[in-house]
Design a protein that fits this description.
This protein is 60% helix and 0% strand. By secondary structure, the chain is mainly α. It has one domain. The longest helix is centred in the last third of the chain and has 27 residues. The relative contact order is 0.08.
Amino acid sequence: MTNIEPGFDLNSISKVPPEYSSFSESVVSANHDLVKGYKKLANEL
């Protein structure tokens, strides 16, 4: 884990490969859909 403070050199952080970013975005999207589904269920109970 990296703490980013004033004066921190952002170029010192390694770049995330595109395929990792794509996977992370798909996980976020799936989780968002699950939350929406759970909220609908909660409203029906």
